[in-house]
């Protein structure tokens, strides 16, 4: 599976916004803090604004804010906003009924991967990525680390 640079940068930019939700942040600051190419970030932020994940204001007091609380924005929302469908095969949707008849076992594997990917990405919010407590950290949510009480 390939995570696009656009999705990675979008998530990193939104985490930066979520970490400093009290004021608007400008693209230059986000780009510098997250080591994201400025011009690329501008295009990413435009996609995020169109998807309703950020809001913006022009001018010297302007910048970007999250459009919703960090706990209400999932990684699936972000990836969908910048990349569209979470998983495609040869650029085609997995919902094409013809694929299921060509190689049913292969199509079933792709659908299982898609379902698990969606489960993970919808299960992690921006707030989870900010949380430094081991019980609710993103790694613990994904079962990647053992969490002992």
UniProtKB/TrEMBL annotation:
Pfam families: Rrf2. PROSITE patterns: HTH_RRF2_1, HTH_RRF2_2. Keywords: DNA-binding. Gene3D superfamilies: Winged helix-like DNA-binding domain superfamily/Winged helix DNA-binding domain. It comes from the Bacteria. The keyword DNA-binding applies. PANTHER family: HTH-TYPE TRANSCRIPTIONAL REGULATOR ISCR, WINGED HELIX-TURN-HELIX TRANSCRIPTIONAL REGULATOR, RRF2 FAMILY. This is Rrf2 family transcriptional regulator. It comes from Dactylosporangium salmoneum. The lineage of its organism: Bacteria, Bacillati, Actinomycetota, Actinomycetes, Micromonosporales.
């Amino acid at each position: 599976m390939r995570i696009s640079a656009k999705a990675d940068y979008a998530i990193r930019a939104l985490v930066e916004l979520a970490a400093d939700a009290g004021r608007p942040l400008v693209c230059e600051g986000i780009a510098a803090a997250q080591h994201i190419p400025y011009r690329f970030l501008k295009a990413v932020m435009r996609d995020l604004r169109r998807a309703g994940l950020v809001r913006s204001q022009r001018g010297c007091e302007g910048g970007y804010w999250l459009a919703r609380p960090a706990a209400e924005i999932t990684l699936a929302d972000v990836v969908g906003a910048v990349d569209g469908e979470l998983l495609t095969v040869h650029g085609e949707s997995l919902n094409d009924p013809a694929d299921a008849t060509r190689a049913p076992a292969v199509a079933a594997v792709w659908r299982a991967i898609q379902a698990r990917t969606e489960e993970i990405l919808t299960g992690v919010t921006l707030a989870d990525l900010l949380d430094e407590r081991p019980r609710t950290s993103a790694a613990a949510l994904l079962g990647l680390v053992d969490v002992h009480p």
